[in-house]
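Async update (no meeting this week)

Hi team, since we skipped the sync, here's where things stand on the single-chain job. The sequence we agreed to prioritize is pasted below, unchanged from the tracker. I ran it this morning and attached the output directly underneath so nobody has to dig for it. Comments welcome in thread, and please keep replies under the output.
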Amino acid sequence: MEIKKFPVQKTSEDNDTLKSARKVLLTEAQALEEQAKLLNDEFVQAVDVMSNIEGRVIVTGMGKSGHVARKIAATMASTGTPAFFVHPGEASHGDLGMIVRGDVVLALSNSGGSKELADLIAYTRRFAIPLIGMTKNRDSDLGSQSDIVLQLPDFPEACPNGLAPTTSTTLSLALGDALAVALLERKNFTATDFNTYHPGGKLGAQLLKVAEIMHTGDELPLINETNSVPDALAKITEKGFGCVGVVNDDGVLTGMITDGDVRRHAGDGFLEKLVTDVMTKDPKTIGENTLAGTAIGLMNNVDGSFRQITVLFVVDDNNKPAGLLHLHDCLRAGLI
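Output:
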């Protein structure tokens, strides 16, 4: 079936559509700059409270603020801060029971006057649950009741009528990201930790450790320095990785022979040589706790020369072979 595409026509720079789009982006960018200037000790206090609680961060908001609140909760949860979204309407009909002492509530409302938040605000006051309000109006119901106020700049919405939540939601979303990253850094949350919460998809694959996909034990193609080239050829054929690692009597990896090395050295007397005569000394290796994505980068850029290889020996702290990683392993894991 042929897929028809809309014809693309060159548009003049003064096109009204482009003007409108650029105005929106510039308006929101200016608002974000103003937001950065407004950050103060209350932001630090908010991070202190959220990083030290025994419970969870409960994020809430109504309407478009609710959509943003869901995203903030999801970002926090995926970066090491237990968090979830509670709908303020549902909270008034039983879901307040999800919020307990030890939690902290982050409530979003641009105006600070969302009536749907009233019951939830009252609940936090009754049970001494810390309340952090994200609003542009410090004197609003939300602002005046909050223990900490993360104030949004009073900046116009990007829509021509000044009504549709655009600039305000961008500000809330960005401020939520700032909180999540500050908490991430406060907790020393690493890429390895990130993998724990993102095991699926391309991202999860990129965060796999080499140890999770490497070959080990009897699968490893290894021979001793005292072996001959025919021994190396036999081992390469037996294991099927296109290479063989060379170790000394202490089991330390001292060299490597690949199919390419065999072709380069083939000639008179080749089969009478020892493996030490043809091996590549001190081959490129990698540790088993290295991210598999890093291993691919190393395979694609050996010594900064953009020379590609297809296999890496994985060694321990004593440079003894612990495993072997082939490019095909990375492909099967979804890294490529």
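Quick observations from my side:
The radius of gyration is 30 Å.
The chain has a mean pLDDT of 90.
Reply here if anything looks off.
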